[in-house]
Amino acid sequence: MNAEIEQMGDGGFARLNARNNPDLLAPGELQVSENLRLDRGVARTRLGARRRGDLIAGAPVLTLDFTLGADIPLVSVVRAGSLATVTTSAPHGAELSDVVNLSGTGIAAYDDDFYVTGVLSTTRLTVVVVGAPGNSGAVGNLRLDPLLGTGPLTTPLRAAGRFVNAFVAGRPEYVVLAAEEFALAYQDADPVTLQVAYPAGETVDSDDDVTLLQAANRMYLLRAPVESGVWASFAIEGITRVGTTARVSAPGHWLVVGNRVRISGALEAGWNHEFDVTGVTPSAFSFEVAGAPTSPAGVYAARLEALRVKPPLYWDGVAPAFVRTVTGSHPLGPTYARMPGSSAVAVYFNNMLGVARSADEWWLSDVLDPDTFDPFSKSFRTGGGGADYIVAGHAFADRDLIVFCRYSVWRVRAVLDASGTELNASASFVALVTSEIGCCARRSVATVRNFVYFLSDAGVYRIDPNFTEQRLTEQTLLLSDPVKPITDRIDWTAAAGACGVFHDARYWLLVSLVPGADIAWPVTAYQTGGTVADAEERYCGIHYDTAVEFAGPESDPVTFSAPTAGSYGSLEVVAYDRRGVRVWSRHTAVADGATAELVVSPSEFVRYSPCENATPGEAWCGCPDLEVPARVNTILVYSLLNEGWESLDIYGALDGVDLVVARSANRERLFCASANVGLIYLLEDRADGDDAATGRWRRRSWAGRGRGAIRGVRTRDGFWS
C-alpha cells in the first residue's frame, strides 16, 4: 500500500524562550525561533507575504475628477545596455518610481509604460527597456500617468483600517489605506481598488497621528498633528458678534479661510466649540455662530484661546470622496457639541463613539449618532491634573471601556439611563487598574480571548479586566519576559508606531527593532557606468546596470574600471543584516580608463543616503554619512495554542505601518500596509515569490536553519554544537 505523504519538519518544539540559559531550557523551548510556526510540536517555516501592490496597480482603479497628463514631445530616446535615457522638449514633472508612457516613437520596445529609474534633470530621465532597440529621434510623446505616476504605487501610507460597506448589496469589505493626499479602498476578493479623494486642502501629513475607524456605517479618518508651529494654541484678545458673524481679535494669527479653529476659555458655552473660518485680516478672523452668545468681556476674555485643528473626515462607501464632519454650534443647544477634531484616539463601543477630547478627557457620543456629544452629561476624566495623558481606548465586554494612558490603565463602565442619552451615575464608574505601567503604542492594544494585550515601556503586558477592584494590579502580567533579549532591541524612538492584532489564535506585534551588527554575507556589489558628462547629473548609488555577489571579508577586493577615456564607472558595496536593513556600505567612482578597488571591512558600519555629489575621478563622491531610518520589518508572534511566544518573523522589505484583519476569499486574513511605497501585503499566504523566508532555530547546544518557504516546509541543512 502507498504510505501517506508526510511533511518534513523538526519535532518537539513548543515555544520561544530567549531569556533563559540555554542549558536550562525546558523540553520544547527554543532559544532562537525566527520565521517559524510551531504547530503540534513541529517547526515549519512560515508562509511568505503576497504583495498586493501589483494588484492595486493592475486592478480597475476607479477614480473621479482626474485629468489625464499632457503629452510632452520627445527630443530623443538613447539606449545604453538596458537603460534608456529619455529627453523631453519641456519639463516632464516625473519623480523616481513614477510611471510614464511613451508613444509614437516608431519603435515598439519604447511605446509602452515604464517606471522611472532615474531623474537626471527636469527634461531627462531614465527607464529600463527590454531587448536592444535602437535609438529614437525627435518623434513621439511622453505622458506622466496620473493614476500610477502619482497614485497607489508611489505614495506612502500612514494608516489602514477595515471597512464594511453597509450601503451596497453583499456588504463588500475593504481595507482602507490612508495616504498623504487621498485614500485607497482595497477589496481583495475581486480585486478592486477605489481611489477616494480628500476634501480640498485636507491632507495626512507625515507627523500626524492617524486613525481609521468605522462607526455608524461610516469610515472615519482622524488626524492629530503635533501641537507646535501653526498647530499650537494662541491667545486671543476678544470676540465680538454682529448677527451670526463672530469676529475674533488675534493679531499675528496664521489662520486662512477654510481652517477649522477651536475656541476655549469662554464663560458662555456657546463660544467653546469648533468653527470653520470664513474671513481673515492680519489681526482678526471671523466665523459663523448660532445661538446669539454674548461677547466675552473682562477677566473671562483674558482666558480665551484658539487652536487650529484638523477636522475629522468620513466616507460612507458611496460618495466619491471623504467629507468634513459638521462643525459649529449644535442645534440641540450650546451645551451640546459636534465631533471634536485633532484627536486620533477614538473607539466605537455600545453603538457610541468615544473620542479623547484632551489629554485626560473622554467624550461619548449619543447612540448611533457620532455627530452629537454632550460634554456635561456624557464625559469623564482619567488622571486629570497629573503628568499622565491618554494613549488609547479599547472596548471590552460588559459595557466596559479600557482607557490606556501613558503611565496608567483605567477601567470605565458606561451605563446609559432609561432615556439612552445620559450616563447612569449610580451604575457607571471610572476605576484605576494600575499606575505601575502604561501603554506606549496606541495600535498595539488588542483583545486576545478574555485578555487584553498591549505594549508598554517594559514590553508586552497582558491584563484581565474581569476581576474585582481589589485584585486589579495582581492580574497584570509581563507577557514578554521570556523574549526580553528581543524586546530590549525595540527602537523605542519609534515604538509609538507598533501595531498589534489578534488573528489565527495568535497575537501579532509589528514593531521596529534596532538593527544588529549581524551582517548577512555575501553582500552585494552594484556597478554602473556611462560617460563623464552623464556622471555629473547622476545620483550616486542609485542607477545600477549590474549586480554581482561579493563573497565576504575573506575574499579578494572588488576591482572595477572605467574601460575607456571619457567614460565613468562607480561601485557600491552594500551589507544588510538578517532583517534586510542596510547597515554598511562603501562606494567609489573612477573615470577616464582608471581602475579602482574596494576592500570590505565588517568592522565598519556606515549607513548613508544617496546624494547628487558624484564627482568622476575621485575616490569618494563627497557624500556625507547619513542615518537611514530603520524599517519596520519584524513581527513578534505569540501563540495561544502553545501559550508562549512562537517566533520573531523577519521580512526583507515590509516597512509596515499597520496590521488589519479583513476578509479575503470569505476567510479572515491578515494584511499589512507598507509605508514604503504604498503597498499592501497579505501575510501568511504564499510559499514562494515576494517573501521566501529563512527559518532559523536554536535549542540548547544544537541548532539548524533552512529555506523552506518555497514549499512551505522547513528543512535542515546543518547542525553544530
Helices and strands in order, then pairings?
Blueprint: E1 10-11, E2 15-16, E3 29-30, E4 32-34, E5 36-39, E6 42-45, E7 48-51, H1 53-58, E8 61-62, E9 72-80, E10 83-88, E11 99-103, E12 113-121, E13 124-128, E14 141-144, E15 157-164, E16 173-179, E17 182-187, E18 192-197, E19 209-215, E20 218-224, E21 234-235, E22 238-242, E23 245-249, E24 260-264, E25 274-276, E26 279-281, E27 284-288, E28 305-309, E29 313-315, E30 323-324, E31 346-349, E32 352-356, E33 361-366, E34 369-373, E35 379-381, E36 390-395, E37 400-405, E38 409-413, E39 429-434, E40 446-448, E41 451-456, E42 459-463, E43 477-478, H2 484-487, E44 499-503, E45 506-511, E46 523-531, H3 532-535, E47 546-550, E48 558-561, E49 567-576, E50 582-591, E51 595-598, E52 634-639, E53 644-650, E54 656-664, E55 667-674, E56 680-686, E57 695-699, E58 702-706
Parallel strand pairs: 2-3, 8-18
Antiparallel strand pairs: 1-6, 4-57, 5-6, 7-56, 9-10, 9-14, 10-13, 11-12, 11-14, 12-13, 15-16, 16-17, 17-18, 19-20, 20-29, 21-28, 22-23, 23-27, 24-25, 24-28, 26-27, 29-30, 31-32, 32-33, 33-34, 33-35, 36-37, 37-38, 38-39, 40-41, 41-42, 42-43, 44-45, 45-52, 46-47, 46-49, 48-51, 49-50, 52-53, 54-55, ...
Explained architecture:
The chain is an all-beta fold and 721 residues long. Among the domains are: 74 residues, no CATH class; 76 residues, Elongation Factor Tu (Ef-tu), domain 3, CATH 2.40.30; 115 residues, no CATH class. 2% of the residues lie in helices and 42% in strands. The chain contains three helices and 58 strands. The strands form 15 sheets. Strands 9-10-13-12-11-14 form a six-stranded antiparallel β-barrel. The chain is globular, with a radius of gyration of 29 Å. It starts with 9 loop residues before the first strand and ends in a 15-residue tail after the last strand. The N terminus and C terminus are likely disordered.
